[in-house]
Amino acid sequence: MYDLIIKNGTVIDGSGSAPYTADVAVKGGKIVCIGAELSGAEKIIDATGLTVTPGFIDSHSHSDSAIMNNPDQLEKIEQGITFSMSGQCGGSAAPYRKGDTIHTMGEFLSNAANIPQGANISVFVGHGTLRRLVMGTEYRVPTPAELEKMKELLREGIEHGALGISFGLIYTPSCYAQTEELIELAKVAGEYKALVVAHIRNEGDTLIEAVEEFMSVIRAAETRGVFSHHKATYKQNWGKVKTTLKMIDDANASGMDVYCDVYPYIASHTSLSARFIPKELHVKGTAGLVELLSDPVQRAELKKINIQTLGSDLNWVLVASCKNHPEYEGLRIPEIAALRGTDGYDAVFDLIRDSGNVCQACYFSMCEEDVETVLAHPRAMICTDSGVAGGRTVFHPRLKATFPRVLGRYVRERKVTSLPEMIRKMTSMPAHVYNLSGKGLIKEGYDADICIFDADKIIDRSEFTDCVQKNEGLNYVLVAGEVVVEDAVHNGKRLGKVVPAGRCK
């Protein structure tokens, strides 16, 4: 007797192979039989006219902060994500200091293992987290002792199940590291055949140089590397992804093992200060930034610098969240400036100052052609670059709608690539890249993490100014062989877990 049979579905197994019609039988959380006219189950799902695929794998997320307080991971599971790779862009939930005690990644993972999750999750150790813990936000080269301490904490994390190391090279304090520091830490990951991933140092005017830098880090580590949420920002740089993707192709042809991931939007999302405050000024900390932005002379100089690099029109910036100013959430900077009776840059600086540097925005700085180019690349995986909402109602819609958007808008409507190929990029490819045993395929013996959707209807409905609309056409999501989502709504079951990393083959 099977626990469940999914009847008459169009199976796209995740390998990139052509679809076929079959029944899929599940028992004990595993796919145990794939065939025709299977019978004898406690539960039947009629998938006639629907597509059956492996559960989607989010190649780049920030959900590790949700493991303890928001374990349902609603926005993940309600778009079909059954596994997330978290602790990205150099920031991870551990290690951390509480009082005089350093709590390690091993401790964090041990505690998290006892909390059932809405979706499965694995985590990286963040370089920025290591650097901040060991040497604060100082803009300098680490001492030999400090570098050894970072290596020690990284080894501890990897030995206890972390995926490897992530770099966030536009963020404080990772941005203060020289290439040699990155290489030394990446080599530690390489010792374990763990992964090295990076939000590279620049995605705009010096994008190609930033790709070259991270390629040198991957090469030195002699392990697998991933370029995070690959893109080219600002109009003068559009089209550069053709060059950078060729660089990835050339690296792989030379024997390296390099990938990237991408989200299906022309807008990115990060703090206002990360985009508008030069990195050398972040050493001042929050109090220093507030003081700086309260000084008319320094503010005027900062405005001049930004106008020279970004221009005067800030209509491409939409505020997503801002402490002390919820009334501005969902508005563009010129709208906020008009309400405040000021210009755009003064509005930006006021929000950073008044929020204590707790202000996030969406930046419409990419182009559709580049997004489609990266989405179609054979080594590009799909990612949300997001955590969970945690009660917020304004956020980047990728948090809730990435995977249905790719399938509806970019596969069905724009025909960027075939449905079987895109499913491969969402399932078996990330399962291979991140060494997820038993994941990413509809195959006998594999875990029954499964999505069932209407390929003619699946679509995102979440928008930048209306972020909470549920996805359409996602009929069922299964984790460990049980239905956890019906009609894109989570039923409350938490059958996922925190998964220790496998290692590169």
Describe this protein's structure.
With 505 residues, the chain is an alpha/beta fold. Helices cover 34% and strands 22% of the residues. The protein contains 17 helices and 23 strands. Strands 1, 2, 3, 4, 5, 20, 21, 22 and 23 form a nine-stranded mixed sheet that branches. It has a six-stranded parallel sheet with strand order 11-12-13-14-15-19. Strands 6-7-10 form a three-stranded parallel sheet, with no helix packed on it. Helix 6 packs parallel to helix 7, helix 7 packs parallel to helix 8 and helix 12 crosses helix 13. The model has no long low-confidence stretch (mean pLDDT 96).
Overview features:
505 residues; nine-stranded mixed β-sheet
